[in-house]
Amino acid sequence: MARRPEVYIVGVAQSDVGELWEESLRGLAARVLREARADAGGLKPQAIFVGNMLAAPASHQANLGALVAEYAGLAGEAEGMTAEAGEASGGAALHLAYNAIRSGMVDVAAVVGVEKVTDVVGSGVERVMALGLDSDYEMSEGLTPVAQAALLTQRYLYENQFPREALAGFPKIAHANAVENPHAMYRKAIHTDAYLRSGMVAAPLNLFDVAPAADGAAAVILARGEAIPKGLGHALVHLASTSLVTDRLAVHDREDPLFFTAAAVSIQQALLRAGLSMPMMDFFEYSDNTTLHAVLSLEAAGLAPRGQGWKLGTDGSLTIGGTLPVATMGGHKARGFPLGASGVYQAVEASLQLRQEAGGCQVSQPRAGIIQSLAGTASTAVTHVLRRVD
Q: Is there a contact between 67 and 61 (Cβ–Cβ < 8 Å)?
């Protein structure tokens, strides 16, 4: 049996994250794809996988594979398709691209994550974001992703009996890291008193507990070793493994609503396939859609016992200089949360860390990192393990 090719990230690009009123969905996606190709020495992808959650209901545009290929100058030269897995769509697109190369179907693939939240205004944003929940049993009852996370946070606080202010550490870490990220939406550190004074979004989650939905686009170029051009000018990043796992969509159908089962299994599978372990990871780009997501992601990764993940926000272990830095360039909370594009941003940020091109956000001498994209309250979890190649 022929040996499967290894997959490398050879080009990356990202736009600013925020309210990008002057840029269109197609313009953002095409621009970052062209920039990623330039970073990859001009490599031309044979396939384009677009991660997006809201284009159809929010931007009135489907069939993004054809749209992005055309506006990036690749019409008729690259096949294209959209991956939709809620907020984990970008991670799912990366998963598909990785498997396309590993299977031998293509030598070079592009992954583009794009979202234009500002194509909807007012309460319409919450309505379209709720489409990722169970329509019959959750969305129809008026539940939103933030409201669902708030209910679970209240239960987590009740079961584990700790002060809510202990959760301040997670947004504080994200905002501190975003200060040096030129693409971040919020580049200002926050203090505990600001966290405590912040207004409630959905009690007990306040403004600093919830990642802000935003516009943005990011792209990566993947290639098998033989297709990589000489003299790229930057280190290669080995995309060592991937794992996509789904759980029951409706939270009330799960055995334990306060444990992210899909996230745990996805991390275990990705590490096993890469032949690595969590202690070997130099950073963790988790999905801090809310502070609850951050806490339960750490527990799912085995970094804290069930009900004890909240303690990691205050012991210094998750900061840039800690034993396992998280949200190294601001995470969803401070970089901004471009929903279906967020998983591709994570891949770009992890690649910059491993290339040692993360500027003031740089982790010291990283060799390997792990990224995870979550949809909803971990109804879908996509995990990737990345390694530096010298």
A: yes
Q: Model pTM?
A: 0.98
H helical segments located in the chain: 25-39, 55-59, 64-71, 89-102, 124-129, 145-160, 169-178, 192-197, 261-274, 291-300, 331-335, 342-354
Check: CB of residue 53 under 8 Å from CB of residue 64: no
Characterise 230 by phi-psi region: left (phi > 0), alpha (psi -120 to 50), beta (else): beta
Per DSSP bridges, beta strands 368-375 and 284-285 are parallel
Closest to 109 in 3D by CA, of 28, 26, 5, 27: 5
Closest CA to 46 of 72, 77, 8: 77
Distance CA 157, CA 159 (A): 6
Tell whether the model's pLDDT for residue 121 goes beyond 90. Answer: no
Angle of helix 291-300 relative to helix 145-160, nearest 10 degrees?
A: 60
Retrieve residue 141's tokens.
């009852």
HSE, side-chain direction, 13 A CA sphere, residue 118: 12
**Locus of tokens 């939709």:** 84
By DSSP bridging, strand 284-285 and strand 236-246 are: unpaired
Residue 322 has pLDDT above 60, yes or no: yes
- Is the preceding peptide bond at 204 cis, omega within 30 degrees of 0? yes
In the numeric block, the tokens 């403004």 are attached to 207
- Report whether pLDDT(137) > 90: yes
Residue 360: both structure tokens together: 């003031």
